[in-house]
């Protein structure tokens, strides 16, 4: 079972916390193995919206597959933020050093900065705080006006609703796009936004359009991308001709055919498997390629 630990500071913004928490909770309800924890200095944490939150004061034992998230909090500046506990900062550093992933939503990037995890890495935060974050951590590269960034298992997002986009991306990378699409549907949100970054999942990168027919076909490809999906079959499921589907799909995705979109999903999943130790030949078979030649060709480009 993977654990997701939310580090709560006084004045935490409810949506910074609730968005990603709901995404991972929904994934657990849908069958993925997650346990959520909430840790803080005290057992009761005041939120920015006035609702008190209950928390644990002790951290669970963590492994490399676990995720630690610092949601944002109320405050006009980062300098005025409630200081994280030295124990929390040490835990963030140790978890990352042990191969784990750490993430922040909105002003939570300040905690990662205090832990020394932004130095030499790309990061982002809410647009109102970007200049201050850059000034406070000059060794970091603050990427402006994006929804999220990922750099060496240090994940930062812009804040508020972007925490949902971040969580969906992490679920897509870990479990494949079909799981993230199911979570998005369970939450009744459109899984369409992306971080405008190379690391953004293909499921999100090519969803920034309003063509319902293309979205339905993408949903089908997302859930079955490892299977052969002939154009005729996709067109029949969408209730349009092959030519109409190809034209609509290409227009909506900025130039991709359904086949190319499916290959993008396969490539992304294969690269994730390879990065976790799977050999190229096995990764190619798992994502639906007959052999590794096509996968090697796609990776070369």
TrEMBL record:
HTH araC/xylS-type domain residues: 215-301
UniProt-listed SUPFAM superfamilies: Class I glutamine amidotransferase-like (SSF52317), Homeodomain-like (SSF46689)
InterPro entries documented for this protein: Class_I_gatase-like, DJ-1/PfpI, Homeodomain-like_sf, HTH_AraC, INH-QAR
PROSITE patterns from the UniProt entry: HTH_ARAC_FAMILY_2
GO MF entry, a single one: sequence-specific DNA binding
Keywords: Transcription, Transcription regulation
Gene3D superfamilies, sorted: 3.40.50.880, Homeodomain-like (1.10.10.60)
PANTHER family: ARAC-FAMILY TRANSCRIPTIONAL REGULATOR, HTH-TYPE TRANSCRIPTIONAL REGULATOR RV1931C
Record's protein name: Transcriptional regulator
Recorded superkingdom: Bacteria
């Amino acid at each position: 079972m993977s654990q997701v630990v939310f580090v709560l500071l006084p004045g935490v913004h409810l949506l910074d916390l609730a968005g990603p928490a709901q995404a991972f909770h929904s994934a657990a309800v849908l069958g993925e193995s997650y346990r959520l924890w909430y840790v803080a200095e005290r057992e009761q944490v005041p939120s920015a919206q006035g609702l008190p939150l209950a928390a644990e004061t002790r951290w669970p034992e963590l492994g490399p597959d676990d995720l630690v998230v610092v949601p944002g909090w109320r405050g006009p500046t980062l300098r005025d933020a409630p200081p994280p506990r030295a124990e929390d900062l040490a835990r963030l550093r140790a978890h990352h050093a042990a191969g784990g992933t750490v993430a922040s939503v909105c002003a939570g990037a300040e905690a990662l900065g205090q832990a020394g995890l932004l130095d030499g890495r790309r990061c982002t935060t809410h647009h109102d705080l970007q200049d201050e974050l850059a000034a406070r951590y000059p060794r970091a590269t603050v990427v402006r006006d994006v929804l999220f960034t990922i750099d060496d298992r240090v994940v930062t997002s812009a804040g508020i609703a972007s925490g949902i986009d971040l969580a969906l991306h992490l679920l897509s990378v870990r479990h494949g796009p079909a799981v993230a699409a199911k979570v998005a549907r369970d939450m009744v949100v459109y899984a369409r936004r992306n971080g405008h970054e190379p690391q953004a999942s293909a499921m999100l990168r090519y969803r920034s359009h309003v063509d319902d027919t293309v979205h339905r076909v993408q949903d089908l490809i997302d859930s079955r991308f490892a299977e052969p999906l002939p154009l005729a079959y996709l067109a029949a499921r969408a209730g349009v001709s092959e030519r109409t589907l190809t034209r609509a799909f290409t227009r909506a995705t900025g130039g991709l055919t359904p086949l190319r979109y499916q290959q993008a999903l396969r490539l992304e999943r294969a690269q994730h498997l390879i990065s976790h130790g799977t050999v190229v030949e096995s990764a190619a078979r798992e994502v639906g390629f007959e052999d590794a030649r096509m996968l090697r060709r796609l990776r070369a480009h």
